[in-house]
Amino acid sequence: GQSLEQPSEVTAVEGAIVQINCTYQTSGFYGLSWYQQHDGGAPTFLSYNALDGLEETGRFSSFLSRSDSYGYLLLQELQMKDSASYFCAVNSGGYQKVTFGTGTKLQVIP
Amino acid sequence: GAVVSQHPSWVICKSGTSVKIECRSLDFQATTMFWYRQFPKQSLMLMATSNEGSKATYEQGVEKDKFLINHASLTLSTLTVTSAHPEDSSFYICSVTRMYEQYFGPGTRLTVT
What's the rounded Cα separation, in Å, for the pair A33 and B54? Predict the structure, then answer.
């Protein structure tokens, strides 16, 4: 089976940097994805790592270490609108099947 | 990307009745769609994989006779919650996949009274 663990809550100050960690145990691993979900809304895709290393997309970066079964999402220059839940997710079954982590609720404060 | 719609966006039904939720891929032909359920303050739990023209694949612990999935065309999948009970009240979300990205519908909030 699959299991993914994340911190349940993180609080950070506007303009700061925050890192959300994710550890996973899985079979048939293709890659690690990150999604953002605002309250009441649907998840939206942020990033995907298939290989070890850092992927940067604007203010967001994502890191993967396959040997450590570990990844993180790095959010820079935090804005109030970044307050949301963030989920790591494992892609398996030929990319398509995605299993979500427990989710981290990020609160950005002034 | 891909644009996915769901209908209805919210529904209230009485215990014992059935509810059908539609998921449409508006700009992409999807041979596979996914159905998730999310309880308040919890993660998304994959319920089943909907396959166009064939039977759905259900995750362990999901009752296939209770959650009926029909993927009749490349743009439409439906989830029917049969004999709904209050514990089925949840946020139901469908998605389509392009490569490794999942594109989600806006979700359907089901409340069973």
Answer: 28
Residues of B in contact with A24 (CB under 8 A): none
Length of chain B: 113
CA nearest neighbour of B93 among A41, A94, A95 = A41
User: Chain B: residue nearest A105 by CA?
Assistant: B41
A2 pLDDT band (50/70/90 cuts)? confident
Query: What would the two tokens of residue A9 be?
Result: 């809550």
Please name the residues in contact with A56: beta carbons below 8 A apart, sequence gap of 6 or more: none
Contact A35 B102 (CB under 8 A): yes
Instruction: Specify the amino acid at residue B63.
Output: E
- For A39, residues 6+ apart whose C-beta sits below 8 A from its C-beta are A84, A85
Give me the numbers of helices (H) and strands (E) for chain B, helices first please.
0, 11
Q: What does the pLDDT profile of chain B (113 residues) look like in tens digits?
A: 789 999 999 999 999 999 999 999 999 888 899 999 999 989 999 999 998 888 999 999 999 999 999 998 999 999 999 999 999 999 999 999 888 889 999 999 999 99
CA geometry: angle at A63 spanning A93 and A45, to 5°? 55
Q: How many whole angstroms separate alpha carbon B42 and alpha carbon A2?
A: 16
- For position B43, what pLDDT does the model report? 94
User: Least CB-CB distance to A42: which of B34, B43, B107?
Assistant: B107
